[in-house]
Amino acid sequence: MSQTRAKPATRPARPFFSSGPCAKRPGWSLAALEGALVGRSHRARDPKARLAEVIARSKAVLRMPEDWRLGIVPASDTGAVEMALWSLLGPRGVDVLAWESFSGEWATDITRQLRLPDVRLIQAPYGRLPDLTQADPARDLVFVWNGTTSGVRLPDAGWIAADREGLAICDATSAAFAMELDWAKLDVVTWSWQKALGGEAAHGMLALSPRAVARLEAHTPAWPLPKIFRMTKGGKLIEGIFLGDTINTPSLLCAEDALDGLRWAEAIGGLPALIARSEASLAAVAEWVAGQGDYAFLAEDPAARSCTSICLKLVGGWFQALPAEEQAKAGKKINALLESEGVALDAAPYRDAPPGLRIWAGATVETQDVRDLLPWISWATREVAAQY
User: Fold this and answer.
1) Can you state the angle between helices 45-62 and 252-268, rounded to 10 degrees?
2) Count of beta carbons in the 10 Å neighbourhood of residue 101
3) Is 194 helix (H, G, I), strand (E, B) or coil?
4) Which domains does the chain have, with CATH numbers?
5) Which of the chain's ends, N or C, has fewer CB atoms near its CB within 10 Å?
6) Rounded CA gap, 121 and 111, in Å?
7) How much is the pTM?
8) 210 phi-psi bin (left φ>0, alpha ψ -120 to 50, beta other)
């Protein structure tokens, strides 16, 4: 079919909008890795110092309290969350907040794998937050800060009790380095290198408050723990894990890349600058959404809209008139067209989400690239709509 409208004149300079692994920081090249201590043992003095530097710089950029421990762990954010769930849960009942795919996965692990007897699942559909007031401060709490697959984030942590008895276990992988985390309301925080600072995959970060450490040292799980989950020995925390002695073998090439991202974050102004960059991109998308009729935010409450994983759903009249099967096909056609034009790579929605787009807008993405993408979305959508 012939084109129904002219293509936009300007293309995004960097069309990388994947929600993980995410865009590298502006100006990145392989030269950033030239100092990597490849071919060395990660337990040798200098490589271990590099790993410790990742920990120290991460704590500083995130403004983490001094008495928290932070360690590099295997298997990305997933590994970090699983370590926390398998090592810490059991002594109390558990409330699990679920409003998108990954929070649903943690609920499944807790109920079907750990098979804890006292679990309350507090759910909401895509686009909404669950009723946060249902969280019981006497129980452990498991939740994501930002719904990576739904684009719905927590506006704040005011709903978490300061005098809680249970632990607040937070998967913050698409929030850390792009949103303000309320450390006083949290006990376990996890993320991965591949998200907000554009690092490489397979490495996770696990942060523990003093209350979480106390639970680790006092609690023996009723199930066997694989070696890569064990954080205590003889009832005491293995402090080396949080000083650069990793449980498994990390990639020193990836560690060098993580350091490059952290140094860039420091150079541009730290956490406030990172947050401002992400929020600016969200504001650009919000302005565009308000001026057209084909897309709406998946997040229904403006206060809960993510500034990193910006999820949009198709709502135009032409789209609503299609059968469900054709709606799914139309969404895929739009994404394929954007990718074939080289203006938006990997911006398709998560497989469980409604048809639309998921635009990563973390701090490593330039807001101008987001602005340049938006006319292309309008163009591609009109091209596909013309086929129906």
Assistant:
1) 30
2) 17
3) coil
4) 40-266 (3.40.640.10), 270-385 (3.90.1150.10)
5) N
6) 9
7) 0.97
8) alpha
